[in-house]
Specification:
The chain is 45% helix and 13% strand. The chain is an alpha/beta fold and 413 residues long. It has two domains: 137 residues, Aspartate Aminotransferase, domain 1 (Alpha-Beta Complex); 236 residues, Aspartate Aminotransferase, domain 2. A seven-stranded mixed sheet has the order 2-8-7-6-5-3-4, with helices on both faces. A three-stranded antiparallel sheet has the order 9-10-12. A two-stranded parallel sheet has the order 1-11. It is globular, with a radius of gyration of 23 Å.
């Protein structure tokens, strides 16, 4: 027995995170949240609202719990939610789909991304990935044995460059992963970019995975799903979720919509990952998706007001905001303050100013492109945004102290 215990101890150090996930480490969201708590900072980092979602959605979940709907749902989603997803998709795109074969409900959009990769990729398949990207994308590709081929979207426009896209494609390319409205830039694909994606996908017989979780958060012009482009409906999986449009990010209810054959591949992985999303929350999601038009109109108006509030506050603090067309994030240029990079600036901001933001280098393979940027979330209560803006009014003073520590010490005496 002692020998067996010794043998186990001797091999333990050899085990750990597998090689496909080891390069990713802990997420930047966990690190910045830790720093925000340690320094009692106003947290504009992680994209989670600090307010609750609408009462009618909560009441639907409560009713479902009281009605005894606490057991496993069917793997593909409860029928009323699949139907509500199909109805909402038809209302916003004009595309009629068969709910029973062309939708699947997952534990948030993040799971849907992983399921799509696991269900559709063979080892060595390449996926075109636009940076900056949501940080789960490359990890999901790696988990499925795929290879990410990164194409850079350059600030401040973040538009797709045709030459860069076409040069990234090889005989091994199988999929293009797109996010619109885009996290972290807030850019929304325009008609020219959507046509380009359609041309490339059709020419090379590629699957398109379109992450549209911010589909209801658009401002100057409406969101247009990639599934509407000629030739893309037959090869595109559209992903979305409850969390972003109804402020229930912790409920983790997401879904995938697409051609039956592609959705079947997502389902094939989903059945062996989470199997099903929580039943009462699926009931509530169905009620949410059938909200009146007035809900979505007021939702967007409120977020546009928050966007403008934060943008003006960033500008008055000496930062240069890149005004987003959609989503609830603002990238701002901090080059005026002469920090080495985005990580140095965001660490200074949380430790010395008391405001947490995300260094967008975490969303890049080529991190130098993010050197002068920081990402701020405006999915917060007005008082939270005002508190952050008030603290950032001291940015000039505190950054000068950080650059000249000896002079500052003399002045304080």
């Amino acid at each position: 027995m002692g020998c067996a215990a010794h043998a186990r101890d001797s091999i333990t150090p050899m085990h750990g995170v597998n090689s496909s996930l080891r390069p990713f480490g802990a997420t930047i969201f966990a690190e910045m949240t830790r720093l925000a708590l340690a320094h009692n900072a106003v947290n504009l980092g992680q994209g989670a609202p600090d307010f609750d979602g609408p009462e009618f959605v909560k009441e639907a979940a409560i009713r479902a719990i009281k009605d005894g709907r606490g057991q496993y749902a069917r793997m593909t989603g409860i029928p009323e939610l699949n139907a509500a997803i199909a109805e909402r998709f038809e209302k916003t795109t004009g595309i009629s789909i068969v709910a029973e074969t062309q939708t699947v409900v997952t534990c948030g959009c993040t799971e849907a991304i992983v399921d799509a990769m696991l269900g559709l990729l063979e080892r060595g398949d390449e996926v075109i990935l636009f940076e900056p990207y949501y940080d789960s994308y490359p990890a999901a590709i790696a988990m499925a044995g795929g290879v990410a081929k990164v194409v850079t979207l350059h600030a401040p426009a973040f538009r797709i460059d045709e030459e860069a896209l076409r040069s990234a494609i090889t005989p091994k390319t199988k999929m293009i992963l797109v996010n619109t409205p885009h996290n972290p830039s807030g850019h929304m694909l325009d008609a020219q970019e959507r046509r380009l994606l359609a041309e490339v996908a059709n020419e090379h017989d590629l699957i398109v995975l379109s992450d549209e979780v911010y589909e209801e958060l658009f401002f100057a012009r409406p969101h247009v799903s990639l599934a509407l482009e000629e030739g893309l409906r037959e090869r595109t999986i559209v992903l979305s979720s409850l969390g972003k449009s109804f402020s229930f990010t912790g409920w983790k209810v997401g879904w995938a919509i697409g051609p039956a054959a592609l959705v079947a591949a997502v389902r094939a992985a989903h059945q062996f990952t989470t199997f099903c999303a929580p039943t009462p929350l699926q009931v509530a999601a169905a009620a949410a998706l059938r909200a009146p038009d007035a809900y979505f109109t007021e939702f967007r108006a409120d977020y546009q007001r928050k966007r403008d509030l934060l943008a003006n506050g960033l500008r008055s603090s000496g930062l240069e905001p890149i005004i987003p067309e959609g989503s609830y994030f603002i990238l701002a240029d901090h080059s005026k303050f002469e920090f080495d990079d985005d990580f140095a600036f965001c660490r200074f901001l949380v430790e010395k100013v008391g405001v947490a933001a995300i260094p967008p280098g975490a969303f890049y393979a080529n991190k130098s492109h993010a050197r002068t940027l920081a990402r701020f979330a405006f999915c917060k209560r007005d008082e939270t945004l005002h508190a952050a803006i008030e603290r950032m009014h001291h940015l000039n003073e505190k950054s000068a102290q950080a650059r000249s520590p000896v002079k500052s010490a003399v002045e304080r005496r």
